[in-house]
HDOD domain-containing protein
Amino acid sequence: MPQILTNSTLDDLSPVHDLDRDQRARLASSGQIAAVPAGKRITAVQEHPWILYLLSGQVCLVRGETKELIQAGGRRALQPVFSEHHLLDQAVFTADSDLLRLDRQLYDSLSNPRRPAVPGSLDELDLSDAEGALLGKLYHAYKEDKLALPTLPKVARAIQDAMKDPNITSARLARIVQVDPAVTGGLIRLANSAVYRGVKTIPDVRNAIIRLGMEITRSAVMSLSMQQLFRTKSPIMKHRMKAAWNRSVHISALSYVIARHCPKFNPEHAMLAGLVHDVGVIPILDYVSRHEIQVGEDELEAAIIKLHRLVGELVVGYWGLGPEITEIVRYSGDWYRDDREAPNYSDIVRVARLYRLNQSESRGPLPRYDEVPAYYKLGLGFPATDGTVDVIAEAGEELSAVMAMLKGDREP
């Protein structure tokens, strides 16, 4: 039977024992003790969101050719099982054990509230040889400006340029949009959606633009054209690109729905923010594909964890999407960030990401979407007794419609 987690469990564990009593109590409240059977294998890359401690039993830590036996009750067991800087380490339990998981982000926010969510430059990354050849190759390609960045789709780039003209007309925008049939169809569907639907059905893209307005059209066109970026000729990378696209579409649609229920936010801009928040994975997967690098799943995942946000900042900067989108890419996974009084689009994407994770991918002590500062700053209210947020849970039809609009009839 697993041990019970109490505040005193953390008192002797390094480095969390440096927190004050109240901070340790808060960290313990989000922690989890799991019973792990002998023979179970875990990897540092999969467990990266958490700080792990061995409370009972025994585990063998494997780092390359080096093995280290960790015995519960020993001095080594007071240290985390995995280092956050060695993502290719593995651990095999050699006896039935109890494993403590603590939320790494919550610990970081408690121990140093001013610590940035990601390093400010590549030079600040702790990249060891043990983390694999791929990570080193990607790092050097990035540092030497040889990591190919995706270009904006043609129609999105044309819209960006056209919108710089203060005298732009709906007729001119319509001519640009009509180059891409999928984007054209998406704009017409959006104009006829429940949000914008008028007395008459809109049959053409020019009238769709008039109904939506210029700014909404720009954000919508950007979003609708993104799908083509998540394509690859590599059979090995195809499933990862498709998974990244589907994940981005879901978070984009959730961001749209949340923004619709929050004052002073543009739902289409939130939709775009959700769609590009994880765009940094594209150049990484593309690099592996183009160079035909043979890579294991854990090694690739380690590279993505280390570099995807920094690469994503390069991409959105290259596209000229502005500092607001850059901030979203940088901090969308920083659950406990609370640096401003007023909510922003980063808060929307954070809640959307956590909602999705809570619904489909939750592992370990991941915070609930209604337990982070962004949730309350957005004024979404208190969750219902069954744990759902009404504005999201009741918007299933709208959510499906937005996802269908973004995906169109094509698969990436």
Q: What stands out?
A: The first strand starts at residue 32 and ends at 36. The mean pLDDT is 84. Strands lie at 32-36, 41-43, 50-56, 58-63, 66-71, 90-93, 97-103. The two ends are 46 Å apart (CA to CA).
